[in-house]
Structure formats: C-alpha cells, structure tokens
Amino acid sequence: MNYIWSPWRMAYIENHNRDERCVFCIAPTIADWQEHLIVYRGQYSYIILNRYPYTSGHLMIVPYNHDPSLEVLPPQARAELMELASQAIEVLRAAYHPEGFNLGINIGASAGAGIADHVHLHVVPRWAGDTNFMSSLGHTRVLPESLEDTYRRIKDEWEKEHR
C-alpha cells in the first residue's frame, strides 16, 4: 500500500523533529498526566496513549530505560512490560469491548519503529471492519472520540480494575 501523507502523520513528523530529546524519556518527567496522556506508571515502565492512534484506545507501554531493543532491557523491565500488556488488554476489553488486539514491538527503523532508540510495545484494540475505505483508500484515520475522552475513559477504567 502506498502511503499518502495525512494531516495526523504530518503533525507527528513536524512535532517529532522539533526536539532532539527522546519523547519517551521526557513524558514521564512531566507531572501533568492528562495533558501528556500517561495512563499508568509502573516500577519499570509506564503506559501512555498513542498521540497518533490507529484506533481509539491505542496504548503504548514504554520502559523508563532508554534502550533500543527488548533483549537489552533488564529482566524485571521485560517482565513488567508483559504484565502491563495483559492489564492493558483487560482494561481495554472493559472500556471498549474490542473483538481482538494487535500487540507489537517494532525494533529498529527498518522494522517500522518511529522512535527506534527507545523500545516500546503497542497495544491496539481491533474490531471487524475497522479498516474501512477511509484508511484503505483515503489513508486517513477516523476516530470516534478525542484523545482527551479516550484518556479519561481508559484512566477511569484502569482505576476501577486495578485499585
């Protein structure tokens, strides 16, 4: 599939190139969680909404360690990454009732990693037919809610499920 630049993709490129620092290293240092879309903070990793999501509820689990690949993370960070993925699926099931999930780690730029220097795990809820003519032909994502609404929905569900 050829890729045509869409406004959300262009915004990512323009914002991503402004600051040389790693966005995944900066995000957890900022106290305002809602503005920066951090849903949960663990001991070795945190969960953040993808600012340019594939679907509503698209989460990323990001280790605090600035490492480019899974095998160089400390074992505790790898273990927590998978435990948080499991908890994220549980929360997304309750909040969105998806029919399936994609979980993925793109290691290296040639594998599709947008931020190749800091490994992270995508958790994407999926529904039958969620790839429609807009994304297939128009190369544009249509989301039924704002990121702020998605954040509140997931954050509320997280607090309910993991007290």
Q: What features would you describe in this structure?
A:
- The protein has 163 residues and is of the alpha+beta class.
- The chain has one domain (7-161): HIT family, subunit A.
- The protein contains 6 helices and 5 strands; from the N terminus they run αααβββαββαα.
- The chain has helices at residues 7-16, 23-26, 33-36, 75-96, 133-136, 147-161, and strands at 38-41, 45-49, 59-63, 100-104, 121-126.
- The chain has a 5-stranded antiparallel β-sheet with strand order 1-2-3-5-4.
- A hairpin with a 3-residue loop joins β1 and β2 (45-49).
- The longest helix has 22 residues, at 75-96.
- It is globular, with a radius of gyration of 15 Å.
Cα distance, first to last residue?
A: 43 Å
CATH superfamily: HIT-like
Strand order of the largest sheet: 1-2-3-5-4
Annotation, overall tally of beta strands: 5
| Major sheet characteristics | 5 strands, antiparallel
Molecular shape: globular
CATH architecture: 2-Layer Sandwich
| Percent of residues in helices | 25-40%
Number of helices: 6
Percent in strands: 15-25%
Average pLDDT for all residues: 83
Low-confidence stretches: 1-9, 132-140
CATH class: Alpha Beta
Decide which structural class fits the backbone: alpha+beta
Work out the count of structural domains.
Answer: 1
- Give the H and E element order: HHHEEEHEEHH
Looking at this protein, list some descriptive labels:
five-stranded antiparallel beta sheet; 163 residues
Describe the protein's topology:
Blueprint: H1 7-16, H2 23-26, H3 33-36, E1 38-41, E2 45-49, E3 59-63, H4 75-96, E4 100-104, E5 121-126, H5 133-136, H6 147-161
Antiparallel strand pairs: 1-2, 2-3, 3-5, 4-5
Helix pairs in contact: 4-6
